[in-house]
Amino acid sequence: MSQARRLKRYRYLIGFALAHLLLILTVCLRDTFTTFALAPTIFPIASKPFWNDAAAAASFVLGEDLQLGNPARNLVTSYLNAAGIEAGYGFFSPNVPSNYKLVFELHYPDSRTEYELPHVADAATAFRLESLLDRIAEVSYEPMRQTMFQMLTYPVWQRHPDAVSVRAVLGYVVWPSPEQFQRGEKETFEPVYAYDFDLRPSVPATARP
Q1: Domain boundary at 39, 60, 91, which?
Q2: What span, in angstroms and rounded, lies between the C-alpha atoms of 138 and 55?
Q3: Using N-to-C axis directions, what is the helix angle for 3-38 and 48-61, rounded to 10°?
Q4: Residue 176 or residue 202, greater confidence
Q5: CB 144: neighbour CB atoms within 10 A?
């Protein structure tokens, strides 16, 4: 191989490596900025619009603002998934779940209403569920989020086949400050997403974000 061809090959390899590292950095920044925008941090609340704009800019670089069928978006998405860099480093590091809580509201033909929390087999499953709720809260594609809610609701319907409808509510638990706790105040539940699943045939689900 001639010296010129060898140098040209090195340039391609270096360019590819730089593009790969740029994608990793962009994905990590997107996830970091999204966390800053959604979760309580040391930054003031007034800075949340800045973090939202920063996360949107990172998503723009990754082509996430393009149409779903856009070839450029599909190419970048396919490469990110093939390379295993579609999620930031926080996905692989120990995850401290946010205070998300999922509640099922079951309605019966006799107008009874019952409330139920997700059932888990052990502590490890509970941890995975907490991580899953974090992911669901970050999903911006409505049909995907609805499908994930539907999958979580299906086991509840199996345990309560006589229910006619189930409302799945994902909310954020806000814990009181030390001063509020001393005054006897308790945590509050702020709904983020809610989906109504009618268990009767041919009745579609409805969303209430």
Answers
A1: 91
A2: 12
A3: 150
A4: 176
A5: 11
Residue partners of 131: CB distance under 8 A and separation at least 6: 95, 97
**pTM for the predicted model, two decimal places:** 0.53
> How does residue 91 score in pLDDT terms, banded at 50, 70 and 90?
very low
Amino acid letter at 68? L
154 and 62 housed in the same domain: no
The torsion angle over the Cα atoms of residues 32, 36, 42 and 48, rounded to 10 degrees, is: 140
Same domain (yes/no): 127, 54: no
Is the Cβ–Cβ distance between 101 and 171 less than 8 Å?
A: yes
Segments in the chain forming alpha helices (H): 3-38, 48-61, 71-83, 123-138, 142-159, 178-182
Tens-digit pLDDT profile for residues 32-41: 888 888 766 7
Percent of the chain with pLDDT over 70: 88
Shortest CA distance to 153 belongs to which of 173, 131, 169, 174?
169
Instruction: Using the 3D structure, point to which of 91, 122, 150 is the last residue of a domain.
Output: 91
Q: Mean pLDDT score of the chain, rounded to an integer?
A: 83
How many structural domains compose the chain? 2
Same domain flag for 121 and 202: yes
Distance of alpha carbon 156 from alpha carbon 117, whole angstroms: 9
Closest alpha carbon to 57 in 85, 20, 32, 90? 32
Domain shared by 83 and 154, yes or no: no
